[in-house]
Write a structure and sequence with these properties.
By secondary structure, the protein is of the alpha/beta class. The protein has 14 helices and 12 strands.
Length: about 400
């Protein structure tokens, strides 16, 4: 609620201000030289920011807020989640030519690693194979938990133990710092696509990396400065504005997701539901020990083998938006094999459960009954039934808007 707002009283403001300056006055040239040398070395400016690609006060405020959420010394914000991921990999390349990546990962991250574009050698492995995969020149171990899109959970502490001193970076986008703080479990870096739940309203592109390691912090800032991948101040303002409601949004959406996971698991048109706390998503019992709640994203497999079933399901929806991304206030659904993970090799997708029958649902803060009513429309379309209302609800398009005040 209060992170990054410490100077507001002195500024005489209550809402976060936006500094849109692209350049800053440098009346004292000697002081400006000292400031720019500090920033080039990966430190904060000592005086004038000089140029907004080097430093921006609005961006710095939201970095401070997210660092407080993570329990980190500092956070570095980037123009997107993939820009943040790329920056971390570029720093890793400067520290050694090899990285270890635990699958499954977000499709674009997997694609970047597999492409070889950054000049890194990558060993893909399972959570139990990290120790064997690490080498003398391994500079970073990459994990994502809960994993995209199957919601598999990875034991961070165990991976850190296996890495045996090699830095571990955790993509904790699905969990948010409300449910998971990887630095507390030995990780060196924690990454978020802040586009998702941190911003929370589907109107921001942003990525953040938080750390307690001074050498990583300085190097990440240097990469951002050199590559121009800085977060725009308007996006930083919107991200900062979204943070005070993060805990409330996570709580409401998670409660909805738990109810929907149970209902989906009991539906004859659904073959399997993937959600932390259900089935085989948590073989190491991470939930309740590292992860403090199952979150608001789930995946489910349609029972139909008809390759047209996912398209029929999506076309029948009225309330839920068929779209990539997640963590918005409204509910989104997408077909990973066709969209977020289409760039991943087909054999890899199949090996990690990203089948043509799998749909990923990012649950929003609407009333759970309204979301379920729409899911039933989609499931009825899959089985070719006119009975889209097995739960006793009218179709969404004709329903009286819900006015429920109690948490769902």
């Amino acid at each position: 609620m209060h992170g990054g707002r410490e100077e507001f009283a002195a500024l005489g403001v209550h809402a976060p201000p936006i500094d849109l300056s692209s350049t800053y006055p440098v009346p004292d040239l000697a002081a400006a030289i000292v400031s720019i040398d500090a920033m080039v070395a990966g430190a904060e400016p000592t005086g004038s920011p000089v140029y907004s690609r080097l430093h921006n006060p609005t961006v710095a405020r939201v970095e401070s807020a997210i660092a407080a959420l993570e329990g980190a010394h500092a956070t570095v914000a980037f123009a997107s989640g993939m820009a943040a991921y790329t920056a971390a990999l570029l720093v890793a390349r400067g520290r050694g030519g090899h990285v270890v990546a635990v699958r499954p990962l977000y499709g674009s991250a997997d694609h970047l690693l597999a492409s070889g574009m950054l000049g890194l050698e990558v060993t893909f492995t399972s959570p139990d194979g990290v120790a064997e995969a690490c080498r003398a020149d391994t500079s970073l171990v990459l994990i994502e938990t809960p994993a995209n899109p199957t919601l598999q959970l990875v034991d961070i502490g165990d991976v850190v133990r296996q890495a045996n001193g090699v830095p571990v970076m955790v993509d904790a986008t699905f969990a948010t710092p409300i449910l998971l703080r990887p630095l507390e479990h030995g990780a060196t870096l924690v990454l978020h696509s802040a586009t998702k739940a941190l911003a929370g309203h589907g109107d921001v592109l942003a990525g953040v990396v938080s750390t307690n390691a001074p050498e990583w912090l300085a190097a990440l800032r240097q990469v951002r400065l050199l590559t121009g991948s800085v977060l725009h101040p308007m996006a930083a303002f919107l991200l900062h504005r979204g943070l005070p409601t993060l805990a409330l949004r996570v709580e409401r959406a998670q409660a909805n997701a738990g109810r929907l996971a149970t209902r989906l698991a009991g539906h004859s048109a659904v073959a399997a539901v993937h959600y932390p706390g259900r089935g085989a998503t948590d073989p190491h019992h991470v939930l309740g020990r590292e992860l403090h709640g199952p979150g608001s994203t789930l995946a489910f497999e349609l029972a139909s083998d008809d390759e047209g079933a996912p398209a029929r399901f999506l076309a029948a929806l009225d309330l839920i938006t068929p779209a990539v991304s997640l963590g918005c206030t409204d509910t989104l659904i997408q077909h990973p094999a066709s969209l977020t993970h289409r760039v991943v090799d087909d054999a890899v997708r199949q090996a990690h459960g990203i089948t043509p029958r799998l749909l990923r649902l990012s649950v929003g803060i609407e009333h759970a009954d309204d979301i379920w009513r729409d899911l039933e429309r989609g499931l009825a379309a899959v089985v070719g039934s006119d009975d889209i209302d097995a739960a006793g609800f009218p179709p969404v398009s004709t329903a009286t808007p819900s006015a429920h005040l109690a948490p769902a």
